[in-house]
Amino acid sequence: MIFWIVFIIITLFAFVAGASFFQAWRLLHFHAEGFKSLRLEELGTQQKIALFILGRRMVRPVNTRDPSALGMDFETRRVRCPAGHELELWRVRVPSPRAVAVMLHGYAVSKEVMLEAAQEFAALGCEPWLVDLRGSGGSDGDSTSLGFHDAEDLEAIAWDVRQCHGGAAPPVTFYGQSMGAVAAIRAVHLGRINPAVLILEAPFDSLLNAVRNRFALLGLPVFPAAHLLVFWGGLLFGSSGFAHRPSLYARNVRTPVLLMQGDQDRRVTPQQAEVLYAAFPGPRQLIWFPGAGHESLQQYDSRLWRESVDCFFKEMLKTDD
Hints:
There is one protein chain. By secondary structure, the protein is an alpha/beta fold. The protein folds into two domains: 1-59 and 207-242, no CATH class; 67-206 and 245-316, 3-Layer(aba) Sandwich (Rossmann fold). It has helices spanning 2-28, 45-54, 115-123, 150-165, 179-190, 207-218, 225-236, 246-249, 270-279, 297-300, 302-316, and strands at residues 74-80, 86-92, 99-104, 126-131, 172-177, 197-201, 257-262, 284-289. The chain has an eight-stranded mixed β-sheet, with helices on both faces. The model has no long low-confidence stretch (mean pLDDT 90).
């Protein structure tokens, strides 16, 4: 009897471990065909079970619009990173900008999702630089590291900004949504970039918590599945997934930070946002968006977003433009 109990336990653990590896692989690798997003709230029971066992084949994000769709003049640039791959950027032309806003998107999307936010930045007198991170849009690659290795690429982007503006470069801010915000925090932590300010929307405080929250949304057991998924994910992008913790990176970030967060976000809970916010040692401000979930906060409430960014710029950049 004991033999069979042990056998069943080992078999179940092996099944869950194998399923977790398959999920991690699918979540980190994009394909020509598959699902465009992971709206877990919209899945039925059978779909949730299938997702738990098989993962979800994610389609590689592409751009179907560019800044001209919103009447913005722009140029397309390509930046070569130290690792050898290239990233595609859109530089929106703004005369005599008060600042440059380097814009970083979230998971499984491309830079086109930030076009409306870019338009807002331009209206505020900032020059938007929209970036396709690795594996997205016009950039090289077909995989993601959830902001881990993307942080290493931001130094090349900051260098290209300086080259374009020469000695008259305006202050540079890095603006990130979700995964893009994580990349920006880690890049400052690593000393890759030294922006004038950081503007962050809903970055997770740790990869483990981000995965836990998604299993909770599925109504499925969090342990040990979430831990196994983080373990395999870390191995796949060449590090420890458990060490991918922006709440630890934040301790080395003395750059002024504007953190914007939806108070109904179930992927990054308000409690987790508070933990991350408290970890920043420098000047910081936390703006809550009532009723907002894990989504573009600029599109959710453009007035509150615009006022928050404008006031933060005026305070931190000492400009009334």
